[in-house]
## 1
Amino acid sequence: TQLLEQSPQFLSIQEGENLTVYCNSSSVFSSLQWYRQEPGEGPVLLVTVVTGGEVKKLKRLTFQFGDARKDSSLHITAAQPGDTGLYLCAGAKTGTASKLTFGTGTRLQVTL
Amino acid sequence: GAGVSQSPSNKVTEKGKDVELRCDPISGHTALYWYRQSLGQGLEFLIYFQGNSAPDKSGLPSDRFSAERTGGSVSTLTIQRTQQEDSAVYLCASSSYKGEKLFFGSGTQLSVL
C-alpha cells in the first residue's frame, strides 16, 4: 500500500518555467522530507518540514507542509537544467521516525 | 570514507543463486537503513538497525531476505534463491540518529536473469 502519492509522475519543462510537485496522503505525518535523486546516485535530502503550515525556502525551491500535516508541495521558480532529477517526498510517522515512507516520485526534466 | 559506500555497484546473477550486498555507513552513524527502489520509483523500506537494538525487519518482503550489521558498522544484505522480481536498486543509508537526515549510498543495481 502506497501511503504517499506524488503528482505529477513526470514533468518536462523548459528552462525558466515554474512548476509545482505535490505529495499527498490520507495519513498524518510528524515530519516530511524532500529528496532529489540523480541517475546512478542515492537520494539527497533537500529539506525537512515538521510544523503544519510551515514554509521553507531553499534558493528557488519553496517547500510547504499542509496545515493537517497530510500533504506537502514543492514549488520551483525559474527552473534550470540542473534541477533535473527524481524528486521524492518521505514522511515519518510519530513514534516511527526510524522508518520513512517514500512517495511514488516525480521525474523532472528541464531542457534549454 | 566521507560518505556511505556500497558494493558492488552492479551485480548480475542467475535465478536461484544467493547474493550478498555490502554497506559501509558513515563513521559514527548509529542508524543504518536498507531500501529497495524499482525502475526509478519510490523507495521501499526493508530493514533498519539502530545501535545495539534489535533491528526493525518489518519491511523484508520474504524470508529469503536477511541482513546483519557487524560491530555496529558494516552491514550485509543477503538475498537467497534470487528471483527475477528481486531485480532492483538496493540503497543503503545511515544517520547519526533515527529520524534525522539520511545519507544514502549510490546503491547496488541487482539484475536477476
Note: The interface with chain A takes residues 4, 31, 33, 35, 40-45, 48, 50, 56, 58-59, 91, 93, 98-99, 101-102, 104-107 of chain B (CB under 8 Å).
## 2
Amino acid sequence: QKEVEQNSGPLSVPEGAIASLNCTYSDRVSQSFFWYRQYSGKSPELIMSIYSNGDKEDGRFTAQLNKASQYVSLLIRDSQPSDSATYLCAVNPLKGGSEKLVFGKGTKLTVNP
Amino acid sequence: GAGVSQTPSNKVTEKGKYVELRCDPISGHTALYWYRQSLGQGPEFLIYFQGTGAADDSGLPNDRFFAVRPEGSVSTLKIQRTERGDSAVYLCASRLTGTGRGQPQHFGDGTRLSIL
C-alpha cells in the first residue's frame, strides 16, 4: 500500500459546482496534513493545512480530516475555471523526527465554464 | 525576492556529466528540503537540512546524489555521472521552524533537469 493515495482523476466539474478531492494515508501516527495546488509547469502552492479531526474552512476551500479512518479531503465550493490544476495531498509521517512530506500522485481537476 | 529561489530553471546535459542545482531559501527559514518530481507523479523526498546538517537523507536514491548547505542558507544538490532516469523537476522547499507545529513548506519553481 502506498503511503499516501489519491484518485488520479481526472475530475471534471462544471463551473459553480463543488469539487471533492480525497486522500488516504497509511501511517496512523501522522499529525500534519496539507493540500497543495500545482498548475501545469509550476511549483506546488499551499492551499490548506489541517492538524485536528474535523473541518477547517478558508474561503471557498474546506479541508476535512478523519484520523480514525486515515482520510483527508478537500472541498472546493463554487468552483472556478482558475481552480483547474492538480491537487496534491501531503502528509508528514513523523518517522524518525524528519519533517519530510510524503505526497500522493495528485488529482487533476478541470472546471468547465 | 521573498520566495524560494532555484537556479538554473532548466538544465540540459549529456548522460555521464556532473550537475549542480542551487536553492536559495526564504530568509530566516532554517529547514530546507529537496524533492524530485517526475511527470505525472507527486514530489518525492530526497533530503532534509536543519541548519547546516543533513537531518534526513533517506530519500537520496544512490551515492551519485549529494547535497550540501555549508552556511545554513543556500543549498546545492549535486548529481554525479548523470543517467537518463535522473531527468525530472528538482524542487526545493524551505520552512520556518521553532514557531509551532506543522509550519508549511514553501516551494521554489524548480529546476527542470533533462539528461540526453
Note: Chain B has a mean pLDDT of 93.
